[in-house]
Design brief:
Number of helices: 2
Distance between the termini: 40 Å
Largest sheet: none
Oligomer: single chain
Radius of gyration: 16 Å
Order of helices and strands: HH
Shape: elongated
Helix content: over 70%
Length: 68
């Protein structure tokens, strides 16, 4: 049986942020009007940035707990 490799340093939020960045890029290439493509792109990028900030904040809290 093959077990999946788990990377403890890779948070779920970072993975979701990466997925939203990919969705943002695919939104630009979609077959929609320019305004729809830009709206979808910016919505996904805002979500990705928020998730990345949350992951960074969580990582900083973990570092502070370990150093104390």
């Amino acid at each position: 049986m093959i077990k999946p490799i788990v990377f403890p340093h890779r948070s779920n939020r970072r993975a979701r942020a990466a997925a939203h960045r990919a969705m943002a890029m695919s939104a630009l290439a979609s077959n929609s009007s320019l305004s729809v493509r830009y709206r979808r792109y910016h919505a996904h990028m805002r979500k990705a940035e928020a998730l990345a900030r949350a992951a960074d904040a969580t990582a900083q809290e973990a570092v502070q707990e370990v150093s104390e």
